[in-house]
C-alpha cells in the first residue's frame, strides 16, 4: 500500500488538535505556577515538564500545515478563553477517567456513585462547551479556525 498522502487524515488532525489544546493550556498553567513553587525538587520537575511540553508543541506545530484545511498577549478575553479551556479539558478528562474507572469497578454501590459522577461530568462538559461555543472560543464546526487557534495558543504558551 502506497503511503504518501498530501495531508493528514481527519481523525488524526482532530487528535492532534486535542493534544495541542490540552498541552498548550496546561503549559500556560505550569508557567503561571512556576514562580509559586518553593520546593526545589518540585520546581525542577515543573521545569522539566515545561521543557518537555514546549518540545511536544513545537513538534506538533510542524504538522498543522498538513491538516486537511486550506501570538496573543494574555488580555482579559484571553484569560477567559484560557480559564474556560482549562475547565473544558478538566471536564473532558473527567468523563474519560470516570468511564475507565467504571469498567474496573466490581462493587455495585461504587459503580452507581461513579455513574452519577460521570453524568455530572458530562453535564459540566456540555455547559462549558456551550459557554465557549457561544462566545466564539471553541469554533467546533470550523476546523480551519480551530487549528488556527491551536497554533496561536501553542505559540503563546511556548513564548511565555
Key features of this structure:
globular, 5 helices, mainly alpha, virion, 160 residues, sporulation
> What is the CA-atom radius of gyration, in angstroms?
18 Å
Which residue ranges are poorly predicted, with pLDDT under 50 across at least 5 consecutive positions?
none
Tally of separate helices: 5
How is the biggest beta sheet arranged? none
| Total strands | 0
Strand content of the residues, in percent?
Answer: under 5%
Helical amount:
over 70%
Q: What structural class do you assign from the helix and strand content? A: mainly alpha
Distance between the termini: 43 Å
Mean pLDDT: 85
Please indicate the count of domains. 1
Q: Report the principal-axis shape.
A: globular
Helix and strand sequence: HHHHH
Family: Belongs to the CotF family.
Keywords: Capsid protein, Sporulation, Virion
InterPro entries: Ferritin-like, Spore_coat_CotF-like
Protein name: Spore coat protein
Architecture blueprint of SSEs:
Blueprint: H1 10-34, H2 40-61, H3 76-103, H4 108-134, H5 143-159
Helix pairs in contact: 1-2, 1-3, 1-5, 2-5, 3-4
Summarize the structure.
This protein is an all-alpha fold and 160 residues long. Helices cover 74% and strands 0% of the residues.
Amino acid at each position: 500500500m502506497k503511503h504518501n498522502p498530501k495531508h493528514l487524515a481527519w481523525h488524526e488532525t482532530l487528535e492532534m488538535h486535542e493534544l495541542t489544546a490540552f498541552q498548550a493550556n496546561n503549559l500556560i498553567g505550569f508557567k503561571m505556577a512556576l514562580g509559586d513553587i518553593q520546593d526545589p525538587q518540585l520546581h525542577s520537575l515543573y521545569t522539566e515538564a515545561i521543557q518537555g511540553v514546549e518540545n511536544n508543541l513545537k513538534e506538533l506545530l510542524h504538522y498543522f500545515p498538513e491538516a486537511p484545511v486550506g501570538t496573543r498577549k494574555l488580555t482579559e478575553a484571553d484569560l477567559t478563553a484560557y480559564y474556560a479551556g482549562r475547565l473544558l479539558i478538566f471536564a473532558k478528562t473527567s468523563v474519560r477517567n470516570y468511564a475507565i474507572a467504571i469498567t474496573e469497578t466490581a462493587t455495585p454501590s461504587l459503580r452507581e456513585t461513579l455513574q452519577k459522577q460521570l453524568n455530572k461530568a458530562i453535564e459540566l462538559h456540555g455547559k462549558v462547551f456551550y459557554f465557549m461555543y457561544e462566545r466564539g472560543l471553541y469554533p467546533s464546526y470550523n476546523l480551519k479556525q480551530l487549528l488556527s487557534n491551536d497554533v496561536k495558543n501553542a505559540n503563546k504558551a511556548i513564548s511565555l
